User: Fold this.
Amino acid sequence: MEKSKVMLLLSGGIDSTTLLAKLKEENKEVIAISFFYDQKHAIELEYAKENAKKYGVIEHKTIQLDSQLFSGSALVDNKKVLSTYENGEKPFGQENAYVPYRNLVFLSIALSLAESYKINSIYVAFNNDDCSNFWDCTTTFLSQLNAISSHSNTKIYAPLTNLSKKEVIHLAIKLNVNLSETISCYQPTNNKECGKCLSCLVKAEALVGI
Assistant:
C-alpha cells in the first residue's frame, strides 16, 4: 500500500514536532517546510533540521524570506523589545510577538509548493492556546484559507487545534517525543529558553503536574 504524502510546516517547537511524530505514526510520508526570516529564535531551525532527520522526512526545505516583510514585529525587529511576563501574568489580546500575516505568507508558499509537488494535504500545528493571542491561528482563519485552496483541491489541516498546550504535551509523551529536542522560546540565549516570554509562560504552565 502506497504511503500518503503530505506537507508539514515544521518549526523546532513542541507542537510541530509532536505533529510530525503523529503523522509518521500514521504512516505518512512527510515533506517538511521551515522558514528563516531573521527571527530572534532562529535557533529553532536547527531543532527542526534535527527532528526532520530523526523522523525520516523525505525532504526538508528551509525557505528564506526577506525580514522586511515582518519588520513590524518584535519577534523580528531588534529595536523592539519582546513582551515578557516575569510575574506569570497572562497577556490579554494580541501581544507584540505577533508577526503580521506570517501564517498567511507561510501557508501561501506551502500551497504553491504543494501544487507543484502534487500534494493535497498540508498540516500546521496550531493549538487551542494559540488562538487567544494570534488571529491567524484560529479555525476561522483556516476555514477561509481552505475556501480559497479548495480551487486546487488542497486542504490545510490543523489536527491539534482543539488541544491545549498541556494536551499537546501529553500527546507528545504518548508518542515518545523528546521534549528536550525541541525549543519553545521567542528569544533564547545560547540555546537556553528565557523563561519570560509568552511562549515560555505557556510551556511552563502546561508542564505543571507532568
About this structure: The mean pLDDT is 93. The two ends are 38 Å apart (CA to CA). The chain has six helices and five strands.
